[in-house]
Amino acid sequence: MNSVNINSIIRFVVLILAQVLVFNNINFLGNINPYPYILFILLFPINNNRTLFIFLSFMLGLFVDLFSDSGGIHAAACVTIAFIRPPVLKFTFGMIYEYQTIKFNNTEFSSRIVYFSILVVIHHLIMFLLEIFNIYNIIFVLQKTLFSSIFTILLCALISILFSNKQR
């Protein structure tokens, strides 16, 4: 096992525990919940096996579902963003992605925020659509998606800055 695999395993376990023990208990203003566990999907190494990545994303969502008693909505949202991640990476990072040389700690902060924002909004929209599952509450779904996405993006950016290995 190399250090990338060990870091991924540690990140997987720590983010699940943090989500289940800390972030699931935050309910700001009734409908703002952070979901930083998806940082595992966002920061997973680019050049690893895609099938393994989608499976790990499913397992991540499944574990959060099991501890949150949420019926599979996290697993569905995680698999979706894992599946659409390559086009989002290509859109956000361009040629760096083409050559498979992305190191998230070395990318521009603005590109990283755009990348985080796209995937977080898609994740939250799918998750809240499946949670509420009523077209008459679409405004409520969009409201929860917007506010929870902002909170999650800020939290993911803060965590990625705090734990980055970039030498300054």
Automatic annotation (TrEMBL):
Keywords: Membrane, Transmembrane, Transmembrane helix. The chain crosses the membrane at residues 6-26, 38-60, 72-93, 113-139, 145-163. This is Rod shape-determining protein MreD.
